[in-house]
Specification:
Blueprint (H helix, E strand, L loop, with lengths): L27 H5 L6 H8 L23 H22 L2 H8 L2 H12 L6 H14 L20 H12 L4 H14 L3 H7 L3 H12 L4 H14 L4 H9 L3 H10 L5 H15 L5 H5 L2 H10 L4 H12 L9 E3 L2 E3 L1
Antiparallel strand pairs: 1-2
Helix pairs in contact: 3-6, 5-6, 5-7, 6-8, 7-8, 8-11, 10-11, 11-14, 13-14, 14-17, 16-17
Main location: nucleus
Subcellular location: Nucleus
Protein name: SWI/SNF-like complex subunit BAF250 C-terminal domain-containing protein
């Protein structure tokens, strides 16, 4: 806050009848007795009465109790981080989910913190992001345009933009959490209309994460793709046409990923892609890899057998024809 910032004067009545709260006027002298407040300001404080509104200017003096110098900002930041940690802890309890996702101000604050990822404290951002991931399965983004009172200008589009910013982050904990967040949000059909317009950007980034050496990043990307690819046909068409998507999903299965559930989801994604006739030409070039996994990987042989069947046995709507090792498609 700037030094010349002014606030309307107000009477502090909280704890006025107590001796330990620090808010009563009888304690002002004690609070400022050891400060280096200039004499003229000190006299103003001492001459204040309960019925007289005090000037807010002294709150922003260099040595005032509520000054916003570097030390004051640090203290405020520490309080903000502590508050974000409390909100994060609340989000882990299922009993709190309904209350939190219906509290518009809470959600607006969380998304605003994500928007300000380049300016806010790392721990604060992480806490808010984890809270949002926990709430995502029951979160309806439409609350940001509801009739409930709004304290921060935040729309559904702004919220999605903030999430995309986290997904694009180079910090592993953030882009992994953002990928998981998208996968959970899109389960709710009411959130689809806000995420589908940026689905191409989401796919591009998730496919990039599939090539990251970190196993947890790969797992987060596969989990998100698993849910997003089930939204509608258009999503499956866009994923199949995304460069390296099929190739990297195959590598997850062939490597294999240390978590078997991740491999299973990758195989199921490929099976959902081949169910669309328009995708067959994109997948046909990988037919040898499908056959190799079919003959060498027992866990997923049934899935890849179905993929090969879909590729070769069913007629295609394409006018062009292609030669496949398991037969012709016309």
């Amino acid at each position: 806050m700037p030094r010349d910032h002014t606030k309307p004067p107000r009477v502090r009545t909280l704890g006025v009848n107590t001796t330990i709260s620090g808010f009563g006027l009888e304690n002002v002298g004690k609070v400022y007795s050891d400060s280096t407040t200039p004499p003229n300001d000190q006299s103003k404080i001492e001459s204040s009465t309960i019925t007289k509104k005090r000037s807010a200017g002294f709150l922003f003096d260099e040595d005032g109790l509520f000054n916003i110098d570097d030390e004051g900002r640090t203290e405020r930041q520490q309080c903000a981080v502590a508050a974000s940690n409390i909100i994060r802890n609340f989000s882990f309890m299922p009993e709190n989910e309904t209350i939190m996702v219906q509290h518009r101000h809470c959600l607006e604050t969380i998304f605003q913190c994500l928007e300000d990822q380049n300016a806010e404290d790392d721990e604060l951002i992480t806490n808010m992001l984890e809270a949002l991931v926990n709430l995502a399965p029951v979160l309806d983004l439409r609350i940001l345009s509801s009739s409930k009172p709004s304290y921060i200008k935040m729309t559904e589009k702004s919220a999605v933009h903030a999430i995309m910013g986290m997904l694009s982050s180079s910090i592993k904990a953030w882009h992994c959490a953002a990928a998981e967040l998208i996968g959970r949000l899109i389960i709710n059909p009411d959130n689809e209309s806000f995420l589908v317009p940026v689905i191409s950007q989401i796919y591009r980034r998730l496919v990039d994460l599939l090539s990251v050496p970190a196993f947890d990043a790969q797992a987060a990307a596969v989990s998100a793709l698993y849910n997003v690819s089930e939204v509608n046909m258009d999503c499956r068409l866009k994923l199949a046409s995304e460069r390296w998507a099929v190739d990297r999903l195959l590598k997850i299965v062939k490597a294999p990923h240390p978590v078997s559930e991740v491999c299973r989801k990758a195989a199921v994604i490929l099976e959902s892609l081949v169910s669309e006739p328009q995708n067959r030409m994109h997948l046909l070039v990988h037919e040898n890899n499908f056959a190799e996994i079919l003959t060498s990987e027992g866990k997923y042989s049934d899935t890849f057998a179905r993929i090969l069947y879909e590729l070769t046995a069913r007629p295609s709507n394409k006018v062009t024809s292609g030669q496949a090792i398991w037969g012709n498609i016309n």
